[in-house]
Each structure stands twice: as C-alpha cells, then as structure tokens.
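Objective 1b. Sequence-to-structure analysis of Tricarballylate dehydrogenase.
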Amino acid sequence: MVDLSRKFDVLVIGGGNAALCAAISARRTGASVLVLEGAPKFYRGGNTRHTRNMRCAHDAATEILTGPYTEEEFWEDLLRVTGGQTDEELARHMIAESKDILHWIVEQGVRWQPSLGGTLSLGRTNSFFLGGGRAMLNALYLTAEKLGIEILYDAEVIDLEIEHGMFLSAVLKQGDGRAKARAATLVAAAGGFEANIEWLKQYWGEAADNFLIRGTPYNRGSILKMLLANGVQEVGDPTQCHAVAIDARAPKFDGGIITRHDSVVFGIVVNKHAARFYDEGEDIWPKRYAIWGRLVAAQPDQIAYIIFDASSRNSFMPTLFPPIEAGSIAGLADKLDLNPTALEKTVAEFNAAVRPGTFDHTILDDCRTEGLTPPKTHWARKIETPPFYAYPVRPGITFTYLGTRVNKQARMVMKDGKPAANMFAAGEIMAGNVLGKGYAAGIGMTIGSVFGRIAGREAAQNAKN
C-alpha cells in the first residue's frame, strides 16, 4: 500500500513510456517518486502498449541498425512531415538528446531486436523493441519497482491544486472515496484526449462518431484540461493528430497495431463513391502512413477502401482481419456495397494511366501514373490480376497534438510566458511542441523517452531546491 500521508519529491501522472522514463530519471537523481496510473494494472501504459519502435539519431550502424541516421537527416525528416510546423529549438534539442536515449533506455532494461521488414523501411532509422511495446513497458515497470518507485493503479486524478503556477497536490479517486497526493513537483505524462469523443466532436463535428480509437480508452484528456484551466499555455492545433487508416472492422477502442493497414502503396484507395481522393504513392510509407486517418476522415461517412490484386497479396505485413476477396472488380464492389460500374471505371482509368517502370517499394521508384488526377507518384502498378482484394478502413486516431507548452527543461510554460514554478510535462500531452502536424514512424516514443528523462531529472532537481 502506498502511504499518501507523506509528501513525495516528484508526482508523475500517467503510466506509459514518458511517465516511466520520467519516474526512473527522477528516482535515479535521488528523488522519492509516486506514479499515478489511471488505468487498471492490466491496461497500464497507455498507447505504449501498442508501439513497436523508436526513432533516434545515431552516427553509425549498430547490431540492430543498418546504418547512420544523423541529427541533420532526422531534422530534415521532421521538417518535411510537419511542413515546418515545429518548434525548431525544442525539436533539435530532442533530436540531439535522442542519441543518448538509445543507450539509456537499454540501461533501464529495454532490449532491441532487428527491424521488421515489409513496407516499413525503418532498418536504418528506427530501433524495434524486443517483444514490442508491452515488453518494453514491462521492463520499465520492473526497473521502477526495483528502484523503489511507488505506483498506484486505478488512480484517476479528478482535480489538481495549483496556485500561481505552483502545483500543490492531486485529488484522486480511491475506491468509493477520495485521496490526496502531495508532492514538491509534478510531471504530467497522461496523454492526449483522443478517447474523449465529445471533446473531439468540438473540432470534428459528427464525423468524430465514426473515429476508431487505436489505443487506450483512458486517454480522455482530463489532466490536460485541468492544466489549461489553471493557466498553463496551450500549444498545437486541436484538429491535428496522429491518425492512420485502420480496419473498419476494428473495435472502437484498443485495437492497436494489428488493425493498421500498410497496404496503401500497393493499390489504390477509394471512397464510398468508388472515387480515388489522394496520391497513394506520395512518399515512403513511414513518412505518410499517419496522414491517412485524416484523409479518410474527410471522406463521406468517414469510410474508404484499399483496393489491390493478387500480385500484391503477400507484399505487406498481414493484419488481424483478412481482406475481402472477389474474382472480379464488379464482384468486389458488390461485397463492399459500392457501385460496380463506378469502381470498374476508376480501376480502368487508373490502369490506363500507369506507366511502366521498375517497381521497388523501398525507394521512390519510377512506377507512376500520367494524366490522372490525383496521380499516383510512385509504386503504380496495374490492378489486373485476380483475385481482387479490399480492406475497408476508417480513421484510427492514436493521439492528439493539442497540449501544454514546455521549454527545453520540459518545464511547462504559463499563459503569461513565464515558466511554471514546479510543473513539467512529457509525452503526448506536450507532443504538439514538436509535432505541429504530420508524423514519421517512431517519433512519439522519441518525444516520450527524451522529454520523460528530462522532465524527471529536472523535477527531481527542482524538488531538492
């Protein structure tokens, strides 16, 4: 049992990668630490449970990375996917710090494995967790417990006591009653508001009812809302988020990685009117997969269909749900409740526009369309070999980008521009500082680990002072 009558040096709210990195970092700096995880123990860890890898800068190949990934290349990738909507000072700081995270995270018990193949193309840039996100999370929790970090599960925080930018205590539900947790400093690492459909509807309208939530149902944004209400400066566009195309047959919550489709580059994507609406071959998949949720969200009824043929059937990582199959395009349309004539016309026009080239999904190849709107810039091959296949997809939202503004010390910034007295943030709750829009695979875990480590260290030093 955790003794809530004592005052801790550092209170960490959240239970995922960012929270655990903060807790461990603070503890290793000599602080007493309490972690409040709002979920039950089985569901601990927020979205970290569903992750697979992390993007870190490194100067040379390693046992699990095939080559160097310099700070400058990382920065250029981030600049490209965000369209320049990022805090350059913070982003470059994160990238520089990510170099050391590769080694620091191993010291906390996490193990790496060689990159997965397929369309990911991440063998040089991203390190994969041995056993996936849950194994990574379990390793961090084990280290936290060995270090003497106190952890409370089912600990939903319902109020924060903050005066003039100074955190005093957190009120949490405990059984049928309430309890108060006091600490000298606060690290907020409780995620975004992606599981709060009503909040999403403020920005997306009724379309949000058709969103599927890839991760935890516990990320409802309550801590973020409390902090903003207590004078913390917000950052980020509330409509921007990490959202991918996931199988329309996935559960409303917690479907995770196994419902995500990486087959887009191998075919075409059409809406309910059997019309294409975006370039499926715009760029390497890890730099574009996270735009497809928003693209599908903008389509009628927030539904779309990935169409491909037998030549591509085994070219990508399989998902939980099998593709829908038919011997003809018209037969496929019938199974999808699409207009057969319209789908046949779309496929025929696409096939006629395809120009021959040398197909290679690992590079920006020369297989493209000509005279077609929208074009398919790379990896364009005719859809003509039966059987034909389709995946129905909906927007799968991972995390939101509206968050708390922070400085390089991961200290929250108040609305008057001054740093908070003793409040820090890490992970998705402050990701909007780095991610104004867009995404590249593994950056969410980088943000969590880097700023978690910084926030824990800075919070511990703040508590000592």
